[in-house]
Design a protein that fits this description.
CATH topology: Arc Repressor Mutant, subunit A
Number of domains: 1
Shape: globular
Number of helices: 5
CATH architecture: Orthogonal Bundle
Order of helices and strands: HHHEEHEEH
Structural class: alpha+beta
Strand content: 5-15%
Strand order of the largest sheet: 1-2
Radius of gyration: 16 Å
């Protein structure tokens, strides 16, 4: 299994996590198998990270509305000092959809996608279905 899936598992289990939190979670759940390139693995899965194309050279389409399996996390950077960076599960209903588009300067700015009413309805429906499923699972655990 690729180590970035462990990073996704950790960040999703934590809900809102700093780099250190993800590393600690992995150490507890996968002892003896540390991830030395933790930040790179997080950025690889983070939809609004301009550096992610450097970690997946084969991928050509960076639109988050394409359903790609590695579109898993969203990054929040709180201004400082100290500046704090958090990773959380990517939720299109909350974060919207984005794309990375290579500029003439070679950089990959994050571009927020404008969604038509049908795409917005699809996102809302998916969010409601996920919430209903999560509620049902939680009720079964009690």
């Amino acid at each position: 299994m690729a180590k970035y899936w462990r990073v996704a598992e950790a960040a999703e289990a934590l809900g809102r996590a700093r780099l250190r939190d993800v590393g600690d979670w992995i150490e507890v759940h996968y002892p003896g198998d540390p991830i030395s390139d933790l930040r790179a693995n997080l950025e690889h899965l983070t939809v609004n990270s301009p550096s992610r194309p450097h970690y997946d050279a084969a991928r050509q389409d960076w639109r988050t509305d394409s359903g790609h399996a590695r579109d898993r996390l969203f990054k929040i950077v709180e201004p400082g000092p100290p500046k704090r960076t958090f990773y959380l599960p990517f939720n299109p209903a909350e974060h919207g959809h984005v794309d990375l588009r290579k500029g003439s300067d070679g950089k990959w700015p994050v571009v927020k996608l404008d969604l038509d009413p049908q795409a917005q309805a699809d996102i809302q429906g998916q969010a409601e279905a996920f919430t209903k499923l999560a509620t049902q699972v939680a009720a079964q655990l009690v």
